[in-house]
C-alpha cells in the first residue's frame, strides 16, 4: 500500500537512539543430534513438520557508514518425509532473500532412517536473481533423501527494515510439532504480538538490554480445507507491530488515528500548484460540475476513469502525481485512488476513504492496530450508504469485491479547520450486499421431439451481481471467438454436449453495474441425454435442467464454520410441455421445502413447487442464502439446503402412455 | 481518351499493389475485424561465417513490427526475449510508435528487467529472459522489437516458425551462409504459399523463405504439439572448410551420434565401490538376466527422484552415476547413465538411448540435429531384444515404455562409433485394461453392493500417481472419486487397495458402496439404468470447428460388468437390446443377459489409436452417438 511512510519511521527510530545495538543472536543446528522419536501412527502420515522455528531480530547497525535498522530473520526447519511423494514435495527449497549479500548463513542436510547424514555442499546452493518479478531467491535441492528421512535446513537472512508490522502463519496442511517464534528488539522498541485462531498469547521479557517476545508450542494440527469456508483467515497465525519507542516517551505508535493521518497525507492532499488546476480542468472538460445530482456525478466520474485510465505496477512519481497521471492516462493503485479522491473533493461530494483487509486472508481486527489490515481501499458515500472500489476496473458504484464486505474497516474523513486539512477516523462494519443483488436465474420451457430423441429447451438465464462481475463488464471487448466460447459456457449448464443455437445477450454495457442490470443470455438448448427410455416409457431428467448443483453429501465431521462468499438467490422456473397421449406419474417428487430462519429472518432455504396448467407442468424453485456466516452448530441447516438443491438434480419425471 | 483512362487505371493499380506497401489502420481493421493485433512484419536474418580462427560465428537478427488494432491489448504490451549461456543477447531495442496527429511519436522502452526463466520441470538452469512493457499501447500503435543473438554452440540452433499468435502479413527468414560452410535444412508442414529462393552474393550463399498472410497459430485442446501442424524450418550446419581447419558438424545421424557420444558418454567416470556393492546386493541370488535388469531398474525408479539442474552443457552431459546415487536425485540423463553403469556392472549389455518424446514429430532421417530428441533413457539387450528403461516414469513396469515415448525412434549408443535406431513399441489396448466389476442389489430403495477395479498397463500407472499423490486424509475422497458411478449420491462405505507397490501385478481396488436416489419406483414398477458408468457419452468432436487431430496418451480397453440381483417378487418387464459397433480404431459392445435371478450387464469399449485424424472424426462421432443412445436405456422390473 503506502510504503513511503515507513522510511519516515525508520529515520525517527535511528536518529533518536544513537547507540548501536548489541550483536544479533546466532543460531545453529545441533551438530550430532538424535532423530525424533516416531510412532507407528506418525509413520502413516506422509509429512510431519518436526520443527518450525522462526526468529526475527531488529538490530541497529552500521550500514555503509550510516546507522540503519535491519532485521535478521532466521528460519530453522526440520521436516519428516515418509513417502516418495512427500520427498518430491519438499526436496526443493526456495528462500527469498534481498540479493546474494543478504544471506548471513545457510546450511542444509538430510538424516535418513538409519541416521546417515548427507550435508549439502556450499556449491549446491544456487542463486536466482529475479523470479517472476518477485525478487531474489537462494535455492537448493536436499540430497540423500529416502522415505522416513528428516530434512533439515537453517538460514539467516538480513534485510533492511521496510515495515514495523508483519504476520506469520504457523498452520498449514501438514501437522507441526515444535513451533516457536521469537521477536527480539533493542529494549526501547516495544512490539506487540497477537495470536489468532487458537495461537497462545505471547509473553515479553527483557534481558541484557534486549526485549524478547516469544512463543513455543509443541503441536499444531494440520489445517483442514473445506468448501464454503475461508482458508488463510482460519489458520493459526500471529500478527506483530511496533507499538512503542520508549526513547521517545510513552506515545503509542501505529494507532488507527496515526495510520489514518498518514494515509490521508499520502492520498488526500494535493498540490495547489501542479495538481488542483489539472483536476479543475478535467472536471470542466468532462462536464462533471453540471450533472444533475451527486449520484450522477459519482457514476460519471467512475465511468470516465475506469474507461480511460489503466492501472500499472510501479512506484515512480509519474504513477502517483495527478498532473502526470492525467496526461499519461495511467497510474498505480495509489494514483488512481488519489484521482478519485481529488475529483470527488473538488465536486464537494461527501465521502469517506475506507481501508480494510480481504477477509479470506484475515478478518479485520479493530483491536489490533496494524497496517497489515489496511490493504484494500474503497470510497464510502454516506448519503446513499454505498461503496465504490477505485482500483477494481470491472466493478461499479454500489459493488465492491465481496471479501472486503462483511468485514470491519477503517473509515477516514476529511476535516477542514480553517486553512488546515486533517482527518478523523473510526472503525465501522462494511455490510455485505443482500441476496437479491446476486441472482442466477433460469427460465426454461421444454418441448420433446416427437420420438423423444431430444429435449429442446428454450432458456433464458439472468446472471447478476457477484455472479456476473467476472465477465459482464468485459463481455463487449471480447473478440467473436471468445464471446462464442463464453456463451457456450454460460448455456451448457444442462449438458456439456448440448447443441446451443439462437443465442442473444443483453446488458453488456461495461459502465453498468452487474447489480443494476443482470447479464441476460437466451438461446435454444438441444439435449439428447436428458431422456432415458424403457420400451414405451420415458424418463425425463428434469433435475438436470437447473445445472449441476454443488453438494455436501459427505458426512465427514465439519471443522470450520461456514463463511459464504456472498449472499445470493437462485430463481428457476421450468415449464415442461407434456406430449399428447402421455401422463407424468410422479409429479409429487417435484415438491421440496427446506428452509431455516434465525431471529425471525429467513437465513437460507430451497423451496420447489409445481402446478399443472393444461398440458404444461410449471415448476417454481426459490433457493436463497441470506447469511454470510453460518456458525458451526448450524452447519447441518446449511448442509440440508445445499443438498436439497443437489437432490433436485436427481428428480426424474416418469412419462407413460395414457391408455 | 482511352489511353488516359488506362493510364489512370494503371496508376491506381500500382498504388494499391506496390511491393511492401502496407495498408492503413482502417484497412487492417476491416481485414481483421476480430483480431486484437496483426504483425505487419516478422523477420529473422541469420548470418553464419567463419572468424579468423576458423571458428563458426553465428548471429541472428530479429525484427518485428506489430500493429495494435483492439482496445485492450495490455497482454500484448508485455514482451520478453530469452537468452542463456549458449544464446547470448547482444542488442535489444524495443519501442512503440504512438499515433500522433498524422504521424507517429516514437517512445523507447527504457526499463528492461532480467528474470530467471521458470519452468516447473527444471529446478535450475541458465535460461533467462529480459522482460519489458511497451508504453502507450493503443489502437493504431505499432510496437517494434529488434534484437541480435549470438549462438555460442553451433550444434544448437533454433527453428523458425512462420506463424505467430496473431496473423502475420509478411513472415520471412534469410540465412546467409559463408561459402565455406555447408548448411542443411528441412521445411516441415510446407505449403505452396511459402516462397523459397537460393542465391549467391559475394562470399555468401543466401537462402530465403518468405510467406505472406501467415495465419495465427491454431491451438486446440488434446492436439499434438504445434510442430506437427505449424510450418517451420529446422536448419543445421553440416560441415565447414576453413583456411586452416575443417570440421564435420552434422551431416547425418552418424555425426550427431558422435557429437552426443563425445559429450555425454566418453568422459563418464566408472562405477565406484559403493555403487558396485549396491548392485551386487540387488542381484544377489538372481540368475536370469531379465530379473537382474528388473531389480536394478525398479531400484532406480523407486529411489532416485527427478530434480533437474540444466545449466549450460549440464543439459547434455549426465552427472556422474556415483554422485547421482548419493544424492538420490537426478534428471532423465542422470538416471539413464546410472542405469547403464549399474546394469553393466551386473554383467548386462546396457546402453544410453537418446529419444524424442511424442511432442516432437521428427525422425533422425528427417534432420540430424538435437531438435529430434529431448530425453534420455537406457536400453538393455535381453534374449528377445531391446527393453527400454525410462526411470523418470515412476510406476511403469519393465515391459512397457513410458507413454510419452511410444512409437518413437530410440538412438541406442553401442560404442564410440556404433549405434542403432530402433522404434519403441506402442502398447496395445488389451494391455491397458480398466475393468470394473460391480455386484449390486436393492435395499431400502438404494442400490447397494460391492465392486472391484482391476487396472493394468498405463491405467495402473495413471492411478498409481493419483492414489500416491493424494494427501493421506483425502485418500478416501480420492478413492470415492475413482469409484463414483450412477450419480453423485454415491457413498463409499469402505475400500481396500491391493498391489499398489507391486509393480507387476494389476492394481486392485475393492470397494463397498451405496447409491441413493438412483433407482425409481412407481406403483408396481421399478426402473434402473444399468449403465452406471457413462464414459464417452459426451465425447463427440465438433467437426465444424476442430482443425487438428485429437491425441491420446495411450490405447485402452474399458470394461464394466454389473451383476444386478433382481429383487424378490419382481421380474424383468423390459430388457434393453444389446449393441455392437466397431471400426478401425473404436469398438463398443454392450450386452444384457438374464441368468436365474440376476441381470448381467457387460460393456466393453476399446480405443485402439493414439492419434485421431480429422478424416476419422465422423466415424468416431457415429460410434459415440451409438454409445450415448445405448446409455439411455432403462431396465423395467415389474412386481409379479
Task: Describe the protein in words.
The complex is a heterodimer of chains A (659) and B (640). Chain A is an alpha+beta fold and 659 residues long. Chain A folds into three domains: 4-27 and 35-248, Sandwich (Immunoglobulin-like); 256-430, Roll (C8orf32 fold); 435-657, Jelly Rolls. In chain A, 17% of the residues lie in helices and 39% in strands. Chain A contains ten helices and 35 strands. In chain A, strand 20 (407-417) and strand 21 form a beta hairpin. Chain A is globular. In chain B, helix 6 (289-303) runs antiparallel to helix 8 and helix 7 (321-327) packs across helix 8 (332-345). Chain B has three domains: 24-247, Immunoglobulin-like, CATH 2.60.40; 253-423, Roll (C8orf32 fold), CATH 3.10.620.30; 430-639, Sandwich (Jelly Rolls). In chain B, strand 25 and strand 26 (446-455) form a beta hairpin. Chain B contains eleven helices and 38 strands. Chain B has an eight-stranded mixed sheet, with no helix packed on it. Chain B has an eight-stranded mixed sheet with strand order 27-28-26-25-32-36-35-34. A five-stranded antiparallel sheet of chain B has the order 22-21-20-23-24. The longest helix of chain B has 15 residues, at 2-16. Chain B is of the alpha+beta class and 640 residues long.
Summarize the structure.
The complex is a heterodimer of chains A (659) and B (640). By secondary structure, chain A is an alpha+beta fold.
Q: What kind of sheet is the major sheet of chain A?
A: 8 strands, mixed
> Given this structure, which CATH class of the largest domain in chain A is correct?
Mainly Beta
Give start-end ranges of low-pLDDT stretches of chain B: 1-21
Percent of residues in helices of chain B:
10-25%
Q: How many independent structural domains of chain B?
A: 3
What does the radius of gyration of chain A come to? 30 Å
Radius of gyration of chain B: 31 Å
Question: What do the pLDDT scores of chain B average to?
Answer: 93
Q: What ranges of chain A have pLDDT less than 50 throughout 5 or more consecutive residues?
A: none
